[in-house]
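Re: How this chain folds, sequence and tokenised backbone to follow

Filed under: protein folding, tokenised backbone structure, sequence and structure records.

Contents: The amino acid chain and a row of whole-number tokens, matched residue for residue.

Body of memo: The sequence and its backbone structure tokens, given next.
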Amino acid sequence: MTRKAWRTDEGLEFAKARLRSAKADEESIDREFREVQEELYRSKAHLTALLGAAFIDRVDAGAEPSDIAYRALISTDELWLLLSGTYEVTETAWLRRVAAGFMATGRNWSVDKLRRCLDEFEHAVMRSQAVTQRREALRQRISDAEGNLRRVTADLATQTVKEELRRAGNVLGESGVGPVVIPDVQGYECKPDPLAANSAFELLDLLRRYREWAGNPSYRDMAERVPGGPSYGTLANILRLNALPKKLATLEAFIRGSGGGDEDVRSWATAWRRLTTPPDSHSRRADG
């Protein structure tokens, strides 16, 4: 049991370390994300300023916005979207087409300047997309680490509670799981006493009554409460065939599966031994 608890504690420390590592990486990626966003906004502002200046030159020269759009082979709506800078930053192909068409209607020196500005902008967009993907992956990693820490903590708490209850004799055995039988009110005990049986028939009848007293759980539930124990069919056959089990472990599984604790198991084991041990062995022990 000590070794099992140590492994659980080790798992808890590992889960904490995993979350701390992810949190540390989060600070780094957030800093990089802010830097990339600043670069993206700066390059977009430069591009918008360049296009705006070119537009003002054309308007001052007497051109109408619709004529500028027509000569650039773009729609008026695209022109206003371009100049306002409200387009999606991921629409780089559209931006290059519209901006190039717009600048081509003006002086040639502006086209080279636009090309450099567009290259800078597209580079910033690609960096932003890459960092955003890494940031989202890290957030998922943090979410997984937090979920794992919650699970490990809950498992440790459950194991600790089960161990404390087991020591108090209020749960199934060391490997058992499942609900505890609700005890009777003092002075009104209804739990059958196996030590009152004088024959195998009487012990089986008391065993049937014990299961009923425990709430009449299904045999499948009883088997699930004793991991590694006999199947539910084996437990059912005890009463169906009306024969005491040949192995004490089977009887123990029946009691623990019904919700009995260590005290109940001892009582039923003693009764089983009294009725299954040959009489001469009792005599030999008494003589000895």
